[in-house]
Amino acid sequence: MKALVLNGIKQLAIEDLEQPKPQDDEVLVKIVYAGICGTDKHLYGGLPGSAPAEPPIVLGHENSGTVAAIGKNVTNVKVGDRVAIDPNIYKDDDFYTRTGRPELSDGLSAVGVTRDGGFEEYTTAPSSVVYSIPENVSFKAAAMIEPISCVIHGINLIKLTPYQKALVIGDGFIGQLFVQALQSYGVHQVDAAGISDEKLKKMKELGAVETFNTLKDDIKSGYDIVVEAVGLPATQKAAIEMAAKGGQVLMFGVGKPDQTFEINTYEIFQKQLTIQGSFINPFAFEDSIALLQSGNIEAESSISHELSLEEVEDCLEGKIENVNKAVVKVSD
């Protein structure tokens, strides 16, 4: 079968691999679409994702497809089912798993990070992370369930009530998901800030009440919820400054491992701020599927590029322009 293999830092190659066979508790999925994530760019450049990736490895952790075969113990799906794969696999006997925080498990493994993922025609995953998708959710949209679930996990970590006013900093794909998700969870006003007028226009279409181009617009502070979805020191600092008294700041954007930013500790004290990190997506797939099925989140219109496996490296290298969100069409 055809696969895109990461053999080292910035070393990708199309190879012909043997089709994997599912173990007793695994599902073999014929991949239709695989999303390209910022984490893939990190892994391509030798940085860690949810866990370190050790080449040779097939990346791709945002996957949808059809069930091609099942192990003898699998009961939740059958051959021919349309499915999406939650990439993250938790270690049952880890301290963090047993205390309700499996995403922090020291035994974390992940499809497309520590085991072969969706940049190949067929991949395997434990049945426990394979989810059936509704008929009204396309394969392309279903490949977005994983990033949606990461957003939903972030939302689950903060306290939301309808009176709140929220600001999403970051006009990319994740920011676009947050605008929709916060509204779906009842926040009465969601504003957005970014640097692209075109993307901010998209944010408006998705429900943002006010939008701000930070290259030319001033933003007044006073937001009950601020979501930082960029991962740069300047936007992380701004997120704290934009928060109201009693506000919550969700640090969602992924910075470099050695990255720091300057923070006014008195401001945290005086405003009584809550600063919350968010890591991956534990048990958020069911809610994410429901949000897609109901139309409360619309992800497919934010996909700007549909690529082949041969084009993935150009995308990771930044050679393809104006990418909002890219997916790979792996097979029909």
TrEMBL record:
InterPro entries: ADH-like_C (IPR013149), ADH-like_N (IPR013154), ADH_Zn_CS (IPR002328), GroES-like_sf (IPR011032), NAD(P)-bd_dom_sf (IPR036291), Zn_alcohol_dh (IPR050129). This is Enoyl reductase (ER) domain-containing protein. The keyword Nuclease does not apply. It holds the Pfam family ADH_N. Belongs to the zinc-containing alcohol dehydrogenase family. SUPFAM superfamilies: GroES-like, NAD(P)-binding Rossmann-fold domains. Its cofactor is Zn(2+). GO terms for molecular function: oxidoreductase activity; zinc ion binding. Keywords: Metal-binding, Oxidoreductase, Zinc.
